From TrEMBL, chain A:
Molecular functions (GO terms): ABC-type quaternary ammonium compound transporting activity; ATP binding; ATP hydrolysis activity
SMART domains per record: AAA
Enzyme class: translocase
Top-level division of the source organism's lineage: Bacteria
Keywords associated with the record: ATP-binding, Nucleotide-binding, Transport
Protein name (Swiss-Prot/TrEMBL): ABC-type quaternary amine transporter
EC number assigned by the record: 7.6.2.9
UniProtKB/TrEMBL annotation, chain B:
Location(s) in or outside the cell: Cell membrane; Membrane
Transmembrane annotation, as ranges: 27-48, 69-87, 93-112, 157-177, 189-209
Matching SUPFAM superfamilies: MetI-like
One Pfam short name: BPD_transp_1
Domain of life: Bacteria
Keyword ATP-binding belongs to the record: no
Keywords: Membrane, Transmembrane, Transmembrane helix, Transport
Cellular component terms (Gene Ontology): plasma membrane
Lineage, opening ranks: Bacteria, Bacillati, Actinomycetota, Actinomycetes, Micrococcales
Domain ABC transmembrane type-1 residue range list: 27-206
GO biological process: glycine betaine transport; transmembrane transport
Primary localization class, coarse: membrane
Protein name per its UniProtKB record: Osmoprotectant transport system permease protein
Keyword Membrane on entry: yes
Length: 270, 247
């Protein structure tokens, strides 16, 4: 479990990135931080592995304040997946995946064998192991990034807009893949995105952030749609328009669901 | 042109290739002093440049210092130190070290600074210590530029090491100063040509090294870039959907 207690981050230039945030991220669930740029969602994520230290408040993992832990050891125990995969360009795929286990002192043979298994886990062919990142497609690079994040079998997986740089088709594929993985592995996932659809698709808990690093609402997707906390949230999730504002019309004795523009979205079966 | 041929003839004269003060001996001395200077200057400049490139701090200061050092005339520095320390190799070594520091410093910090910040951020987030980030990420990726700095420093050292002969009986400069004194212009020119050839050969070696230190993964990226380039200009098609485009 990850807990933020009254966390504030003010940068030296005076910008407040995160202000007085309280959240609990339940274990083995996916929490998605969503908001436009400048809402402090990435800053919040990076406080978990001490890539950013808060200027006020506490971040706790399973009740332990991260500030009391050595940042390097902490980071080696937490999976991190970033946009553009963040792979080391001069190292082969297999070396990238095995990096953190090797840093933690796992034997070479064991680390590489496990890295190959991880390629299977994320749906990559083992023949790609000896390629360099630049020889892979964006989607494949992102899968390698996920494999690397999982390499030490961490309890926590941090994902910072991991699918932001791939095209929509590949993104949809990767999202489904992540849902499948999460179903199998049950990690505590913290996921940052600016795409509300992605947030609703992946999140057990969705945290909507607004400018200045404040939380507007933290709830399940269904609750947010049913009871948006304020106008900002309602507007952000588009609850009253487009494909979210569905209503039922009767066609030949069956209930058809149509969206705000009158386009059919499906049939009501019960 | 005659003089030029005289110079070549002097180089080819077998009597100049044997005995004390022969061409091979002078070349050896020249290389030794150049290597000594390069090692000393590297020990001073590379760690400092590396630290500046890694932390991003002190860049202005190091630019200022290397600019200042560059402005010093080596002959003047040499004379000054020679007056202070006397005849011998100390003075030219110090003067040449001062000459070599700016390119080494610039190469080291530019090399480390050139590495994509996102790659470094990822390395840190994975749990690499700062030393590991430098050794396993920044140095391998920045190495071509660091070697470029060493290359240009070496070229300057070899060209300028002729000045060692000004205050010591050492190096290829000996032929130039001796020829000047005795009005043996063939010897003088021959010595100069030898310095030029030596500089070019060593520079060629460094050019090869510079290619060899490009990491295989980076070289692979250059190759795939050519293939994945869109056939139509981007403006006409918008953003092409080629996966893996760097954002």
């Amino acid at each position: 479990m990850i807990e933020f207690r009254r966390v504030t981050k003010q940068f030296p230039d005076g910008t407040v990135a995160v202000e007085d945030v309280d959240i609990v991220m339940p274990p083995h669930k996916t929490t998605v931080l969503v908001g436009s740029s400048g809402s402090g969602k990435t800053t919040l994520l990076r406080m978990i592995n001490r890539m950013v230290d808060p200027t006020g408040g506490q971040v706790l993992i399973d009740g332990m304040d991260v500030a009391t832990q050595d940042p390097v050891q902490l980071r080696r125990g937490i999976g991190y997946v970033m946009q553009n995969s963040g792979l080391l360009p001069h190292r082969k795929v297999i070396d990238n995946v095995a990096t953190v286990p090797l840093l933690r002192g796992v034997g070479k043979r064991e680390a590489y064998a496990h890295a190959l298994e991880l390629l299977d886990t994320v749906g990559l062919d083992r023949s790609l192991a000896d390629r360099y990142p630049s020889q892979l497609s964006g989607g494949q690079q992102q899968r390698v990034g996920v494999a690397r994040g999982l390499a030490v079998d961490p309890n926590i997986l941090l994902m910072d807009e991991p699918f932001g740089a791939v095209d929509p088709i590949v993104r949809a594929e990767l999202q489904q893949e992540l849902l499948r993985l999460q179903g199998e592995l049950g990690k505590t996932v913290v996921f940052v995105t600016h795409d509300i659809d992605e947030a609703f698709l992946l999140g057990d808990q969705v945290v909507i952030m607004q400018q200045g690093g404040k939380i507007s609402q933290a709830a399940s997707p269904a609750e947010i749609l049913a009871h948006p906390a304020d106008d900002f949230v309602a507007d952000f999730v588009g609850a009253d328009r487009g494909k979210r504002a569905l209503h039922v019309t009767e066609v030949d004795g069956r209930n058809v669901v149509v969206d705000a523009d009158g386009r059919p979205a499906g049939v009501l079966t019960s | 042109m005659n003089l030029f041929f005289d110079g070549i003839a002097w180089i080819l004269d077998p009597t100049n290739w044997t005995g004390p003060g022969s061409i091979p001996e002078r070349i050896g001395q020249h290389l030794v002093i150049s290597a000594v200077v390069l090692v000393i200057a590297s020990i001073i400049a590379l760690p400092v440049g590396g630290a500046v490139g890694h932390t991003g701090r002190g860049k202005d200061l190091s630019v200022m210092v290397s600019g200042g050092l560059r402005a010093l005339p080596t002959l003047g520095v040499l004379t000054l130190f020679a007056l202070w320390l006397g005849i011998g190799l100390q003075a030219p070594i110090i003067a040449l070290v001062i000459l070599a520091i700016p390119p080494l410093l610039a190469g080291a910090y530019a090399g480390l600074e050139s590495v994509d910040r996102r790659t470094i951020d990822a390395a840190r987030a994975m749990g690499m210590r700062e030393g590991q980030i430098v050794g396993r990420v920044e140095l391998p990726l920045g190495m071509p530029i660091v070697v470029g700095g060493i290359r240009s420093a070496t070229l300057q050292i070899i060209a300028t090491a002729t000045l060692a002969a000004y205050v010591a009986d050492f190096g290829l400069g000996r032929f130039i100063f001796a020829g000047l004194k005795t009005r043996d212009y063939a010897e003088m020119l021959g010595g100069s040509i030898l310095v030029i050839i030596l500089a070019l050969v060593v520079d060629g070696c460094f050019a090869i090294t510079q290619r060899l230190v490009v990491p295989a993964g980076v070289r692979a990226a250059m190759a795939t870039d050519l293939r994945s380039r869109p056939t139509r200009p981007r403006a006409a098609v918008g953003r092409p959907i080629t996966e893996g485009n760097p954002e």
